[in-house]
Amino acid sequence: ATLDNSCYTVMLGFPLVDGYVGTGVFSHAIKLSKEQLAPLGHNFNEPVLFEGTAEEKYIVRPVFEQGKEILRYRDVDTLHSAPDVVYRKSVMRFM
Predict the structure, then answer these.
(1) Pick from 87, 31, 93: which is nearest to 64 by CA?
(2) pLDDT tens across 43-54, in order?
(3) Where on the phi/psi map is residue 24: left (φ > 0), alpha (ψ -120 to 50), or beta?
(4) First-last CA distance in the chain
(5) Global confidence as pTM
(6) In whole angstroms, what is the distance from residue 29 CA to residue 24 CA?
(7) What's the rounded Cα separation, in Å, for the pair 49 and 25?
(8) Residues 80, 37: Cα–Cα separation, whole Å
(9) How many helices (H) and strands (E) does the chain have?
(10) 54: which of 9, 29, 35, 77 is 20 to 30 A away, CA to CA?
(11) Residue among 63, 66, 50 nearest 24 (CA)
């Protein structure tokens, strides 16, 4: 069997107020230097949890603004976490 390493997560963000420009709508992300697959036997669509800390310089905090309402990343080479301060009505996540 082959593994599909091309799965993406797409997030559609909705900030608290119209016209908002800033962070807090989307998850923070860290681009990994190489693919990290889930261990064999791990349940599909269940997150793989990261234990540890990341240096600030590697954390990307996507800015939400008009024209940047969608965030897309490849699951096998991206870590993501909740924003420091959440500023959204909702975020729709498609996997």
Answers:
(1) 87
(2) 877 888 888 899
(3) left
(4) 21
(5) 0.80
(6) 12
(7) 21
(8) 15
(9) 0, 5
(10) 9
(11) 63
Q: Residue 43 in 3-state DSSP?
A: coil
Of 7, 44, 73, nearest to 81 by C-alpha is: 73
The DSSP element (H or E) to which 57 belongs, if any, is none
Token pair belonging to 53: 């800390």
Q: Which long-range contacts (CB under 8 A, 24 or more apart) does 65-73 make?
A: 65/20, 65/21, 65/22, 66/19, 66/21, 69/12, 69/13, 70/10, 70/11, 70/12, 70/13, 71/10, 71/11, 71/13, 71/26, 71/27, 72/8, 72/9, 72/10, 72/11, 73/8, 73/9, 73/29
